[in-house]
Amino acid sequence: MNKNKLVASIMPYLICILAALFYVYDYFIQVSPAVITNQLMSAFNIGASGLSVLSACFFYAYASMQIPAGILLDRFGARRLLSVAIMLSGFGVLLFGMTHSFALAGFARFCIGFGSAFAFISTLFLASRWFEHQYFALIAGLVQFAGCLGSIMGEAPLAHVIDTYGWRHTMITTGLMTTVLALFYWLVIRDHRPGVQIREVVQGKGFTHEWNRLKEVLRISQVWWIALAGFFCWVPVATLGALWGVPYLMKSYDWTNTKAAGFCSLFWIALGLSSPLIGWWSNKIKNRRLPCQICFTAGLTGGVMIIFAPHLPVLVTGFALILLGTSAAVQSLTFGIIKDILPAAIFGTASGFTNMMAILAGGVSQQLVGILLALTWAHEMLNGVPFYQLYNYQVAIVILPISALLGLWISLFKLRETHCEQSYPESEAESICHG
User: Which of 14, 215, 226, 428 has its CA 20 to 30 A from that of 372?
Assistant: First the structure.
């Protein structure tokens, strides 16, 4: 094998791994508030509701940019967009670590989410251009696994670092290190294989205008059901994994911050391992719906169990976290189904819409938990920080089994089986072809 062929064989892996590093960072910074809840409430003089707003700013910015990000990817490619996005996200982390203003902290989290909005779908965009179709669901799962590694680093290890250096110093250092990635993105990433042309006309219908891309995506009903499945599967990620899981476990078992964060890593390990495995299994059995149904059933079971965590042995609670992490693997399957039913020219837009719905679940569910905590709070204070009883958390996280039940209903009755084949839904192919 000569040098050119060796480089050509390595480039798909190098480009996608480099893009996935942004997703690792995305998860790391996304879950970081979970291990500094008390510090943030003290620093900005807020309670659970205010903390939920602060954390949710990330998700709302992230969600609001998913459709524009998908459209921009289809138009401009990933190289330029990723380089700018990671710089913006790094600026947000720096500002978050430096400010003493709640409003500026919210703006900083918004900037972080705005930049991070390009992380996941850009990686999938590049994977769709550099790898064969049959590997896509597996790659989506592997990318999800990479993100979960970021979440694991953003909990117990981050808690240890923060205990040593303080949360502000840690955030500022992270923001400075983030900007280094931007240079590598610009130098290494390319949008597609050399000599490959991506057609702007698919099945006789032009997609040269971004609005037409979005209209074509939104007029397909199956896209909405896929996106809703992604919405409900992501509720435990945002509520338990990204914010409230650590304080809930601390309250349930009287654990330290670091110990609770380490135990909560079981959720992320389960999500990280199950995402590629579910994608691989789905491809092997040529079935998309059955894996979704199994995942949501796991989420329903784990959601009911976790509510009773204080009265369960620790190992049983750990199993509940594993079930809940497994349920979120549905998200990687949703992108596989999108890839099955839509042409390449609108894949970025469609994946952006699907990811928007999942991330929107983060903002909505985090704030809902915060509202439920505030409504059931007895106005107790401890060291100047609102003190929440175990009962308050148990009432708030009832949304976990409810969301899993709704997702299971969609996967049973609304998702159309594609058998992992790339083809349009029959009833809608005609409208795409002839407008």
Answer: 226
